[in-house]
Write a structure and sequence with these properties.
Helices cover about 70% and strands about 5% of the residues. It starts with a helix and ends with a helix. It has helices at about 5-25, 30-55, 55-70, 75-85, 100-105; strands spanning about 95, 100. The protein has a domain at about 5-55. It contains five helices and two strands. A hairpin with a 2-residue loop joins strand 1 and strand 2. It is elongated, with a radius of gyration of 23 Å. By secondary structure, the chain is mostly helical.
Amino acid sequence: MPGWSDLVKDKYDVCRTAYADWGLVGKPRSGYLHQAMCHTRGDFKLALRHCKAAEEQFTAYARACALVCKENPTAFWKGVKKDCCKKVSVYANKIGDSEGAYNVCKMW
């Protein structure tokens, strides 16, 4: 996921540590470790939500950095191809007035 290393990874590590500490003491429903676990989990989820919402921006920024660096131009174009070809369909779904696999096949 684009942006994971920049925004989410540190918060995930802290959240995971807080959860493990909370589990070691028997998972109490109150106290300092419970509050720490809840707060770190909330911070992690917020960062993850932000990362998912801005996924296209992080991808575009990474492609722009790859273009500016010019160290490996083939990697840049492979990344562009990978990003642009996500919604490409292999098969024709509409020909003329016929739509759908059954109706297109029925034309012949």
